[in-house]
Amino acid sequence: MASVIEGDVIPRLVLAHRRAAVAAGGVVAAGRPHGQRDPRCDLDGRSGALGGNAGGPGGGPVNRPGDGMTAFEAARPDADVETFAHLILSNDMDRAVALLDDRRARGATFEGLCASVLGPTARLLEAYWSGDACDFTDLTVGLGRLQRLLHDLDHEVAPERALCDLNHRVLVSAVPGEQHTFGVSMLSALFQRAGWHVTDALVVESFEDLVAQVRDDPFPLIGLWVGGPCRLPGVATGIDALRRASAHPEARILVAGPPCAAPASDGAALGADALAETAPEAVARAECLLGRPVEPN
């Protein structure tokens, strides 16, 4: 699996990224066209899918376009997260696994590791790329390594929840245009471990692909993952199409991902029933939407 990801999948993603950059009129260098605005800049001009950064892999500041410091720039992440991100980027996987094992030995659950280490590390890698501290290849390879760790942990750590009734069925997908699958893969894994019956679409080319699925299958819940603010503008139209096509008369729609933490995020404007910044938070919100609240991990 690792050789397939790094030998085939990642080169394809990098090539697609470079072609998109050239089509936008830039010159590819170090993973992003020189002078091209970070494509995840939000609508009011602030940069980054995370709303800030916490310094580059070398320990120095990450320079960003835009004025002022955001909340993430003002607050450094957990030291373990910075260490873990550096281990991932340097492919020191033995030490990365040892860090996770240490947390597990101290009582961390799979859900807790997602919330405190894996998810924040993915967001930090995105911040490094957004600030030119690493290139698109580094980001893609790093997220691929995180995904392998997520997969291994999911198989090593037994779930604590029994399978729910068939009313707890969810269709999980990234919004069209997402290039990386780590966030939506984590969302899917957490839903499964919480006892949900999960159908994975993961990555789709258009909302029409999802419309076809919900038209034929009455999912009570549709979970959409959005990695960057630039993906938000088309989400409202897509959600409207999903509602009109859904075979379930009271389908709930949840949108999750880092952009959902922004002050301007508005579930009603998107047409969503709930928003969540992280995958663990999304599962808790979904439980409440369907009337089965759970204690947070």
From TrEMBL:
Biased-composition ranges, Gly residues, are 48-61
> Which residue ranges are recorded for the region named Disordered?
31-64
Domain B12-binding, residue spans: 167-297
InterPro entries in the record? Cobalamin-bd, Cobalamin-bd_sf
Question: Superkingdom of this entry's organism?
Answer: Bacteria
Single GO MF descriptor: cobalamin binding
Q: Which Gene3D superfamilies match?
A: Cobalamin-binding domain
Alphabetical list of PROSITE patterns matching this protein:
B12_BINDING
Pfam families, sorted: B12-binding
Signal peptide range: none
**Compositional bias annotation for Basic and acidic residues:** 35-45
Q: What is this protein called?
A: Methanogenic corrinoid protein MtbC1
- Organism of this sequence: Roseospira goensis
Its taxonomic path starts at:
Bacteria, Pseudomonadati, Pseudomonadota, Alphaproteobacteria, Rhodospirillales
